[in-house]
Automatic annotation (TrEMBL):
<comment type="subunit">
    <text>Heterotrimer of A, B and C subunits.</text>
</comment>
<dbReference type="InterPro" id="IPR000120">
    <property type="entry name" value="Amidase"/>
</dbReference>
<feature type="active site" description="Charge relay system">
    <location>
        <position position="79"/>
    </location>
</feature>
<dbReference type="GO" id="GO:0006412">
    <property type="term" value="P:translation"/>
</dbReference>
<dbReference type="GO" id="GO:0005524">
    <property type="term" value="F:ATP binding"/>
</dbReference>
<dbReference type="Pfam" id="PF01425">
    <property type="entry name" value="Amidase"/>
</dbReference>
<dbReference type="GO" id="GO:0016740">
    <property type="term" value="F:transferase activity"/>
</dbReference>
<dbReference type="InterPro" id="IPR023631">
    <property type="entry name" value="Amidase_dom"/>
</dbReference>
<keyword id="KW-0067">ATP-binding</keyword>
<dbReference type="InterPro" id="IPR020556">
    <property type="entry name" value="Amidase_CS"/>
</dbReference>
<dbReference type="GO" id="GO:0050567">
    <property type="term" value="F:glutaminyl-tRNA synthase (glutamine-hydrolyzing) activity"/>
</dbReference>
<feature type="active site" description="Charge relay system">
    <location>
        <position position="154"/>
    </location>
</feature>
<feature type="active site" description="Acyl-ester intermediate">
    <location>
        <position position="178"/>
    </location>
</feature>
<feature type="domain" description="Amidase">
    <location>
        <begin position="25"/>
        <end position="473"/>
    </location>
</feature>
<keyword id="KW-0547">Nucleotide-binding</keyword>
<dbReference type="InterPro" id="IPR036928">
    <property type="entry name" value="AS_sf"/>
</dbReference>
<keyword id="KW-0808">Transferase</keyword>
Length: 504
């Protein structure tokens, strides 16, 4: 009998459409999987009480002959940064413990309209500040490949849920790599769309000029299917792009079946030498490039001289915007309130923020407030924005000569829980290759490229494309995925340890 939880979202959708499997059966299978393994993984902060009711409604309407969308009835996990009316929305923080939103995030509303079945809310670093999901106020998520290791961050819960077969689809958010880096360390696919391509309305803001919502899945086609659901203009988001988008699922199908690699120019940044990466990560990256080249792609060395300043610029821009965005958690309007007998409003606010925010959030608020303070604004925040412009120009120059840029998705494989928690700089450098895309607003995708020889853990390759050329990433990502699936005899997750049902 088919293990429903092992099906790709595309295959599951086909079986649902043909009524070979009901949405109730699919949803129950994933709820059972969550019950069986999430005590170890801790991917979910909240499991929906309504999932089976939603699934039953989809089945009823399908049986009645209603024409439903391409992913109707497929279960979905939702990062807890996205507000929902029927489940708590905490953003991984004690300051929002138990908070119920009066509205759905736009991407959640669109998911419901497409008849996806919300399974629950996934764990994350508090307010998306972190690269390991160790900064969640509700405890760390663990990597299904090795429960002693991190699943990446800030969206480690979404990536772990997909990798552990607890959900076929998940929504995440990516401010500096929070979709792509977890995909890298869990053997999943993660996409950061073009800035403005997917609505941020209802995504609890970290850094408004950097945040972007996107899909986390097990295949490139599945990512395209979910991206198709959530993409498009939203009048509630002032940064939303009004132009229509092509079908990303169709772009993935073209990549998997067509000769899209022939003549493709793939840029490799000469300022990112192998010496900056774990040996197994660098080796997997070179092997993936060789496969592309064997199919007719041209590997072109490009220069992006300002990429090396991206991390420094990012960690001035992000804390500055975060300190402003998090000012609304003030004990007055909503969320946690710590009363101080006889105290002033300022006393209550201070006590609440001290009790409600974790150490990493406090660190970044302090950094951001300092960077924005009188006498330092131009020297820090203003200078970082100038570096951001130079990075955008690096991308413009590069894309004048190449179709996509390729990098390793992160410098290392998953490190052990606790290994870097007291070393913020080392933690921040996990986003070395992902941050430039957020600073420039261009789209990026991480696709599994193999296992590192040192530790047998997953490695991903990142492709970046010009703004609004997300479909190009799906073609290239799916083309490489098809080559690797042929070599591996299945997805990378098929080679995972026993928790995932693999054979490693």
């Amino acid at each position: 009998m088919t293990d429903i939880t092992r099906l790709s979202a595309a295959d599951l959708a086909a079986k649902l459409a043909s009524r070979e499997i009901s949405s109730v059966e699919a949803t129950q299978a994933h709820l059972d999987r969550i019950a069986a393994v999430d005590g170890d993984v801790h991917a979910f902060l909240h499991v929906s009480d309504h999932a089976l009711d939603v699934a039953a409604d989809v089945d009823r309407r399908r049986a009645g002959g209603e024409q439903l969308g391409p992913v109707a009835g497929v279960p979905l996990a939702i990062k807890d940064v996205l507000v929902t009316t029927d489940m708590p929305s905490t953003s991984g923080s004690k300051i929002l413990e138990g908070y119920m939103s009066p509205f759905d995030a736009t991407v959640v509303a669109r998911s419901r309209a497409a008849d996806l079945v919300p399974l629950g809310k996934t764990n994350m670093d508090e307010f998306a500040m972190g690269s390991s999901t160790e900064h969640s106020a509700y405890g760390p998520t663990r990597n299904p490949w090795d429960l002693d290791r991190i699943p990446g961050g800030s969206g480690g819960g979404s990536a772990a849920a997909v990798a552990a077969f607890e959900a076929p689809l998940a929504l995440g958010s990516d401010t500096g790599g929070s979709i792509r880096q977890p995909a890298h360390v869990t053997g999943t696919v993660g996409v950061k769309p073009t800035y403005g391509g997917v609505s941020r309305y209802g995504a609890i803001a970290l850094a408004s000029s950097l945040d972007q919502v996107g899909p986390v899945t097990r295949t490139v086609l599945d990512a395209g299917l979910l991206h198709d659901v959530v993409a498009g203009h939203d009048i509630h988001d002032a940064t939303s792009i009004a132009d229509p988008w092509p079908s990303f699922a169709e772009a993935a199908r073209e990549g998997a079946r067509g000769d899209v690699l022939k003549g493709l120019k793939v840029g490799v940044v000469k300022e990112l030498p192998d010496s900056g990466f774990q040996a197994g990560v660098a080796s997997s990256f070179r092997d993936a490039l060789a496969k592309l080249e064997a199919q007719g792609a041209e590997i072109v060395e490009i220069s992006a001289p300002h990429f090396e300043y991206a991390v420094a610029a990012y960690y001035l821009i992000l804390p500055a915007e975060a300190s402003s965005n998090l000012a609304k958690f003030d004990s007055v309007r909503f969320g946690l309130r710590v009363d101080v007998p006889g105290g002033t409003v300022e006393d209550v606010m201070s006590a609440t923020r001290d009790a409600g925010f974790g150490p990493e959030v406090k660190r970044r608020i302090i950094l951001g407030t300092y960077a924005l303070s009188a006498g330092y604004y131009d020297a820090y925040y203003g200078s970082a924005q100038k570096v951001r412009t130079l990075i955008q120009r690096d991308f413009d120059q590069a894309f004048a000569s190449v179709d996509v840029i390729a990098t390793p998705s992160a410098p290392t494989t998953a490190f052990k829980i606790g290994e870097k928690i007291d070393d913020p700089l080392s933690m921040y450098l996990n986003d070395l290759t992902t941050i430039p895309a957020n600073l420039a607003g261009v789209p990026g995708i991480s696709v599994p490229s193999g296992l590192a020889e040192e530790d047998g853990l997953p490695v991903g390759i990142q492709f970046l494309a010009p703004a609004r050329e997300d479909a190009r990433l799906y073609r290239v990502g799916a083309a490489l995925e098809a080559l690797l699936v042929d070599d591996w005899g299945g997805l990378l997750l098929d080679r995972a340890p026993a928790l995932l049902g693999g054979t490693r």
